[in-house]
């Protein structure tokens, strides 16, 4: 298959730095991505080109770019997923990509005895890249189940998230509505929600969102589309179009994250690390 998105991870070093500068020195992953799209004037086809599962090449390679920039000391990230320029990063308007790659390779040899030659080697990865790795593996498993099983999995997830009376519908010609439920907030407010479950390989387009909204109006206050794939940029815009009922979107990576959070088919092993405080014993 011909590659549409031709920028490599190291081509994105400078666009990432420029994006953060334009954002005032810090930004979320999605904000940085939007700025890079604007800086590089990317087409919709380039933006939506899939790397693997529900991860686009743009998102994947930007994650690697941030990984290198972080190890080089130009950017840092918080536990909330906000990336920001360091003091060093603020002082550099641009960088030489070969210089960064050589410096990171040298650092990796010093720390692990291995050199990072290209993205894909699992050495000193950011949490973001580790997440993308296991999310892709989980989505492979989910995509192997039947569409009916995926609908039931979505039903279970929504129940675990606090929805009540969650039903999977068997009606045809229903505009893509696969189920419905009620979300109660604080035991006071209730919202009727309809959802669509798309066990999807590629990107969900804007037409799917429009059709679903048409089926939703008059039946529920909220709509939700859950997909194992990704959503195109146009689909995201359509979901939040002014003057139209908003549609919430859960893509494959978000879906995998929810399964992990709820421990649905995902086991998380917490490794205990014990450190001895020698100085503490010196007081006796």
Structure write-up:
It contains 12 helices and 12 strands. It has 2 domains: 9-113, Orthogonal Bundle (Arc Repressor Mutant, subunit A), CATH 1.10.10; 145-261, Trna Endonuclease, Chain: A, domain 1 (3-Layer(aba) Sandwich), CATH 3.40.1350.10. The strands form 4 sheets. It has a 5-stranded mixed sheet with strand order 6-7-8-10-12, with helices on both faces. A 3-stranded antiparallel sheet has the order 1-5-4. Helix 7 packs across helix 11 (252-261). By secondary structure, it is α/β, with parallel strands linked by helices. It starts with 12 loop residues before the first helix and ends with a helix.
Q: Can you give keywords for this protein?
A:
284 residues, alpha/beta, Arc Repressor Mutant, subunit A, Trna Endonuclease, Chain: A, domain 1, 2 domains, 5-stranded mixed beta sheet, 3-stranded antiparallel beta sheet, 12 strands, globular, endonuclease, hydrolase, Restrct_endonuc_IV_Mrr, nuclease
């Amino acid at each position: 298959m011909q590659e549409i998105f031709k920028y490599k991870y190291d081509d994105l070093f400078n666009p990432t730095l420029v994006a953060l500068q334009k954002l005032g020195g810090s930004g979320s992953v999605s904000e940085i991505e939007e700025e890079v799209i604007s800086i590089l004037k990317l087409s919709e086809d380039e933006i939506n080109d899939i790397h693997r599962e529900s991860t686009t090449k743009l998102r994947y390679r930007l994650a690697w770019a941030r990984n290198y920039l972080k190890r080089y000391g130009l950017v840092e990230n918080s536990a909330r997923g906000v990336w920001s320029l360091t003091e060093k990063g603020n002082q550099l308007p641009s960088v030489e990509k070969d210089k960064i790659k050589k410096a990171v390779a040298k650092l990796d040899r010093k720390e692990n005895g291995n050199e990072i030659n290209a993205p894909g080697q699992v050495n000193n990865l950011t949490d973001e890249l580790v997440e993308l790795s296991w999310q892709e593996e989980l989505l492979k498993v989910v995509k192997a189940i039947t569409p009916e099983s995926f609908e039931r999995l979505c039903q279970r997830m929504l129940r675990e998230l606090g929805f009540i009376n969650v039903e999977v519908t068997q009606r045809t010609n229903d505009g893509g509505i696969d189920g419905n439920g009620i979300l109660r907030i604080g035991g006071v407010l209730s919202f009727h929600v309809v959802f669509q479950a798309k066990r999807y390989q590629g990107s969900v387009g804007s037409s799917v969102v429009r059709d679903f909204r048409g089926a939703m109006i008059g039946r529920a206050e909220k709509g939700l589309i859950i997909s194992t794939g990704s959503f195109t940029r146009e689909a995201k815009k359509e979901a939040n179009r002014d003057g139209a009922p908003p549609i919430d979107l859960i893509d494959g990576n978000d879906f995998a994250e929810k399964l992990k959070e709820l421990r649905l088919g995902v086991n998380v092993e917490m490794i205990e690390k014990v450190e001895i405080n020698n100085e503490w014993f010196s007081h006796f």
